[in-house]
Amino acid sequence: MGALLVFAIALFLTTPFTNLKILLNRVLKSDTTMFGSAIAAAFISVFLLSWIETVIHFLLLFSSGALVRLDLQGAGYTSKQSFWVLSVISLGGMILGLSIHLAIVNLVK
Fold first, then answer.
1. 83 contacts 14 by C-beta, under 8 angstroms
2. CA distance 69 to 77
3. pTM of the predicted model, to two decimals?
4. Alpha helices in 28-78 (DSSP H)
5. CA gap 59, 77 in Å, rounded
6. How buried is residue 14: exposed, middle or buried, by Cβ count under 10 Å (0-12/13-18/19+)?
7. pLDDT value at 72 more than 80
C-alpha cells in the first residue's frame, strides 16, 4: 500500500498542470458534478481536520517531494526521468526505514 502511495505522489508531482486543468474542466461542466464535488470537498475537509496529525505528515512528505521536483526540473530532467528518480529514492527510503524499524523491533524482543 505504501509503495502505491509513493508512486501516486510521484506521478502527481510530475504530471503537467495543463493536463490536470483539462481533466477538471471536463469533470466540472454540469451542475450535478459540481454539486457532487462540493459534497465531496466538504467530506474531505472534515476527514482532514479529524486526522490532522496524519495529514501534517503527508503534507511534509508532499512538500519535500515538490521541492525535489523543482530541483530536478531546474537541473534539466524530463518528467519521466523525474518520476523515476522520485520513485526510486522514495521507495529506497521507505525500505530503509522499514528495515531499521524491523531491526529495532527484533533487538527489543
1. yes
2. 9
3. 0.58
4. 31-50, 52-74
5. 24
6. buried
7. yes
- In angstroms, rounded to a whole number, what is the distance separating the alpha carbons of residues 43 and 31? 18
Domain boundaries, the chain: 2-108
For the chain, what is the total number of helices (H) and then of strands (E)?
5, 0
| 102: CB partners within 8 A, 6+ apart | none
For 76-80, what is the mean pLDDT? Answer: 90
Yes or no: say if 30 and 37 are a contact pair by the CB < 8 Å rule: no
The tens digit of pLDDT for each residue in 12-46 reads 777 776 776 777 777 778 777 778 878 888 998 89
Q: Using an 8 Å Cβ cutoff, are 24 and 96 in contact?
A: no
Distance CA 83, CA 48 (A): 27
Q: How confident is the model at residue 104 (pLDDT cuts 50, 70, 90)?
A: very high
Task: Give me 93's grid cell.
Answer: 527510503
